[in-house]
Automatic annotation (TrEMBL):
GO terms assigned for molecular function: hydrolase activity
InterPro entries named in the record: Isochorismatase-like_dom, Isochorismatase-like_hydrls, Isochorismatase-like_sf
Domain Isochorismatase-like: 6-177
Entry keywords, A to Z: Hydrolase
PANTHER family for this protein: ISOCHORISMATASE HYDROLASE, PEROXYUREIDOACRYLATE/UREIDOACRYLATE AMIDOHYDROLASE-RELATED
High-level lineage: Bacteria, Pseudomonadati, Pseudomonadota, Gammaproteobacteria, Oceanospirillales
Keyword Hydrolase: yes
SUPFAM superfamilies: Isochorismatase-like hydrolases
Protein name: Nicotinamidase-related amidase
Any one Pfam family match given in the protein's UniProt record, by short name: Isochorismatase
Domain of life: Bacteria
Length: 184
């Protein structure tokens, strides 16, 4: 099954590393994502890079400025799929589902940012579309956020709640070592 396990890297763009993005958790997430990317490349397994292109001019991800560019460590290679999106869900308004079916993808390993936004939205759709989906908890991160009632929630709390929303329902939350083992 290893060739049909696709690594999906969500929104690892320059703006995500800027201070104005906010207080975040998992400071080692980029290193873990880079290690997973290297492992997938060494295994010649399929990789998808997702990039957010905002429709809001004041966004860090407004097209044609540096925040929208992929971080250097996550530059796609010529044979890796790029999905551009303007909403959190990478499946909406894109050919991601069609491309994954053409690749005969049986499972997805999803990493990136932010756990409670684009990662969660994309993973929910993947699960609903019937893909066996995994989320690597240490290779995703979130930002602090106020909850519905105005109480400030730490990035760790936001991240943990999002993982809880996904695990067992839409995906299986796994460790980086468990992700490596999927391609063994």
């Amino acid at each position: 099954m290893s060739k049909s396990i696709v690594l999906v890297i969500i929104d690892m763009q320059q703006g995500m590393s800027w201070p104005q993005a906010g207080e975040r958790n998992n400071p080692n997430a980029e290193q873990e994502i880079a290690e997973l990317l290297a492992h997938w490349r060494a295994s010649h397994a399929p990789i998808v890079h997702v990039r957010h292109l905002s429709t809001e001019p004041e966004s860090l991800f407004w097209p044609e400025q540096e925040g929208v560019l992929f971080q250097d460590a996550f530059q796609p290679l010529a044979d890796e799929k790029i999905i551009e999106k303007s909403v959190p869900d990478a499946f909406t308004y894109s050919d991601l589902n069609v491309w994954l079916r053409e690749q005969d993808a049986q499972a997805l390993v999803v990493v990136g940012v932010s756990t409670n936004n684009s990662v969660e939205s994309t993973v929910r759709s993947a699960g609903n579309l019937g893909f066996k989906t995994y989320v690597v908890s240490s290779a995703c991160f979130a930002f602090e956020k106020d909850d519905f009632f105005g109480q400030s929630r730490s990035a760790d709390e936001v991240h943990a709640m999002s993982l809880a929303n996904l695990h067992g329902e839409y995906a299986t939350v796994i460790s980086q070592d468990e992700a490596f083992a999927l391609l063994s």
